[in-house]
Design goal:
CATH class of the largest domain: Alpha Beta
Distance between the termini: 37 Å
Order of helices and strands: HHEEEHEEEHHEEEEHHH
CATH superfamily of the largest domain: Aminoglycoside phosphotransferase (APH), C-terminal lobe
Number of domains: 2
Largest sheet: 5 strands, antiparallel
Shape: globular
CATH architecture of the largest domain: Alpha-Beta Complex
Length: 298
């Protein structure tokens, strides 16, 4: 029986089906041997394989991921990698494609990079992450990848769900701030962002960041939105409801000192951006829970 990959639980317990192995061989003209399935893919199924091109990672995305969106992200990665080698770009097939579809799932191959997840309790690693984010934003602003109107913008208002929110999420002042921001997008520095810049997507090897992974949420946005959310992610307490202010301050300082392209007056928006994104995360998870999908109670 062939395996199907409908959710993260299945993805972590199911081996690579022979049909998928055959499809990879046909797409990439590649002989390979599956070594093992890797953990930590969350929504994706990922396998480590050995081939004549060395160690590779096979990454199968869920059905709902748009092939067009992923293709745009791959183009962005390939354009950015020459400027920033820690960007691990996907392999191209002989046809030039970096993706194919197997049983409605997008599949891509990447070079394997050794390392462990960044430790946000390590001050040196937090500083390295902040500096890399600055270099990343500068590189992305110069990447010659056309703007894609189908790529979602987190800066856009999600409709008007505020009246449907639980009382604890309602915040008229925050809504007013965000609505004014959306009306004046050129007032802030905008461009492509990674979209999921946090410790589990950063690999560290021999004391240095060796890879920036998982570009599936790349899109155009306010750069300060990513700076703010990253500062929160690297400085928050284990309980997730507060942060270490000094860690956040030094993270932002390191980003600025490394040449982060945001303008001086944008940093005053750090807290509103964090509050907006936190509320969006809560909304997303409550909506997922309401329809029986995977969600994060924290």
């Amino acid at each position: 029986m062939e395996a199907h990959y409908d959710d993260a639980a299945n993805l972590q317990t199911t081996g690579m089906a022979p049909a998928l192995q055959a499809a990879i061989t046909a797409q990439y003209a590649l002989s390979f041997q599956v070594i093992r399935q890797l953990s930590g893919g969350e929504e994706c199924a990922i396998w480590l394989v050995r081939s004549e091109q060395g160690l590779l990672v096979v990454r199968m995305s869920p059905r709902w991921r748009s092939l067009t969106r992923l293709g745009w992200a791959h183009a962005l990665m390939r354009a950015t990698q020459p400027l920033l080698p820690v960007v691990i770009a996907p392999l191209q097939a002989p046809t030039g494609s970096t993706l194919f579809v197997h049983q409605e799932h997008p599949v891509a191959l990447f070079p394997y990079v050794d390392g462990h997840h960044l430790d946000r309790e390590d001050a040196a690693q937090r500083g390295a992450a902040a500096r890399l984010l600055a270099h990343l934003h500068r590189a992305l602003l110069t990447a010659s990848v056309p703007y894609a109107p189908f790529v979602r913008h987190l800066r856009e208002a999600p409709g008007a769900p505020c009246s449907e929110d639980p009382a604890s999420l309602r915040d008229a002042d925050l809504d007013t701030w965000h609505a004014a921001l959306v009306r004046r997008p050129d007032a802030l520095t905008c461009g492509p962002i990674h979209g999921d810049y946090y410790r589990r997507n950063l690999l560290v090897s021999r004391g240095a960041i060796s890879a920036l992974l998982d570009w599936d949420d790349a899109h155009h946005d306010f750069l300060m939105q990513e700076v703010a959310w990253s500062a929160w992610g690297f400085a928050k307490t284990p309980s997730g409801d507060d942060w270490h202010r000094e860690r956040a301050r030094t993270f932002v300082q390191a980003y600025r000192a490394a040449g982060g392209p945001c303008h001086e007056d944008e940093y005053s928006l750090l807290l509103p951006f964090i509050r907006w994104r936190l509320r969006e995360e809560v909304r997303y998870n409550l909506a997922a829970a309401a329809v029986g999908e995977r969600w994060d109670p924290e």
